[in-house]
Amino acid sequence: MRRQIGLISLPRLRHSVNMAASLELDRGVAFLLVPVCLAIGAIGYFSLTAEPDFARPVAVVILTGICALVSRSWPKTHLCFMAALLCALGLLAAKVETWRAGTQMLGSEISTQVTGRVVSLDRMETGRIRLTIDVTSTARPKLRYAPERVRLSARKIPADVTAGSLITGYAKLLPPTGPVRPDSYDFSFDSYFAGIGGSGFFLGNPKLVVSDDGDMPLSARISSSVENAREGIADHIRASVGGAEGEIAAALIVGVRAGIPDDINEAMRRTGIYHIISISGLHMALVAGTIMGLLRGAFALFPDFSARRPVKKYAAAAALFSIAAYLVISGIVVAAERSFIMLAVMLIAVLFDRAALTMRNLAISAIAVIVVSPHEVVGPSFQMSFAATAALVGAYAGWADHRAGKARTPPPKRSLPGFLTRKFLLAAIGLAMTSIIAGSATTLFAIWHFQRV
Question: What is the dihedral of CA 438, 441, 445, 450, to 10 degrees?
């Protein structure tokens, strides 16, 4: 009897799985799996114990591509080979990014005379100044394989040092540290892809070197101008607000976080709100939403114009330009770059009369991020943001389908206080559910990466 039940249930199970798979493929789920396969390939590359040469990933891509091409007559086999091809492409993208970064990392501790051009400077809460420097030369001893960019701290710097200034000083250089325990945060991994080959501190106060700014490359001049503008805005905020509040305001607006006191940082970490300090999706969405809301409200004041013109597209284009400017002024950090790509895809969808917030657009955003920065796949920022967004899109799409399938009677007439109370309660419930859904989706990642819930 058991064997008969097993024989009967197995074909039924196989048939049900095939029907469900066919239905999902008809709905376009195959495209949603593209970033998943690319991410698997990138994770596989960064999990390797030895660095492969270019020939092997390229050979795997060519082999799986040929297999996918010749297997088009067998749909199931073709899908398997396409998934393998996408995984191979993800691995190749990670290899290309690693080769493109090519950061020269310091091998051991050493003290040397460092001369370089200041890329950025952060004034720490302790009073020290942290400088990111593009190294132009070293001396006493001269390093044969000097890192191109280092991050050094100093007790004091000349008052007229700004981004773009050429400074020199005797410094102790240290190689970027690895994880303190297996699978924990690897500072050297992030330093490599940030182009920082060493860190340390000046043994004395660095000195300003007089140089001709005409020798600076155009890209360095543009970067220095943007960085000086950021510092000017941050200084104005600190002068206007003052104290720890001013430091937090500067972090929220231009991404300068070094001056926030340690006790406040720890308090925000323990309460789970430290993510609001990092320029990311929340800030980008607030900027885009504010610009779109204000412009559409302004266009509504001119009904003749707004009735004849696609004012929603105008507002979306202005929001896209605004978040691009915000990305630049916030320092083009990785989290902001990823959030910009996600929002840009959604705003461009509005320009082409497509739904802005869909799983397909989320997949396009993930593909763009993986192609540009494959190393982000193994970090908590990428994993948590896309997990939360996917959970929210899926949950609210399911709720919308549920409501669309139910017949609704017109709501009874209410007094103004009753109407406002109902709207307030609905908004509060919506915010609470948003927090619960996003928090549930990111809990496992928070446990794994940060060992806290």
Answer: 40
Category of 32 on φ-ψ map: left (φ > 0), alpha (ψ -120 to 50) or beta = alpha
Strands 149-154 and 207-209: unpaired
User: What single string gives the DSSP state of each residue in 392-421?
Assistant: HHHHHHHHHHHHHTS--PPPPP--HHHHHH
Strand partners, 115: 137, 168
| pLDDT digit string, tens, across residues 273-332 | 777 787 777 788 889 999 999 999 999 899 888 888 999 999 999 999 999 999 888 877
Q: Look at the pTM and tell me if it is higher than 0.90.
A: no
Longest dimension (CA), the chain: 92
Q: How far is CA 318 from CA 86, 290, 300, 407, in A?
A: 35, 11, 16, 39
CB atoms within 10 A of CB 279: 26
User: Do residues 312 and 284 make contact, with C-beta atoms less than 8 angstroms apart?
Assistant: no
Antiparallel, parallel or unpaired: β 198-202 and 149-154? parallel
The pLDDT of residue 257 is 82
Q: Is 240 exposed, middle or buried (0-12, 13-18, 19+ CB in 10 A)?
A: exposed
**Whether 258 contacts 267, CB under 8 Å:** no
Q: What are the chain's domains?
A: 2-101 (no CATH), 110-215 (2.40.50), 220-274 (no CATH), 281-450 (no CATH)
Q: Which tokens is 124 given? A: 């720490």
Give how far Cα 76 sits from Cα of 21, 66, 72, 232, 421, Å.
10, 16, 9, 59, 54
Is residue 61 within 8 A of residue 157, CB to CB? The reply is no
User: What pairs with residue 198 in β-bridges?
Assistant: 150
Q: Is 206 helix (H, G, I), strand (E, B) or coil?
A: coil
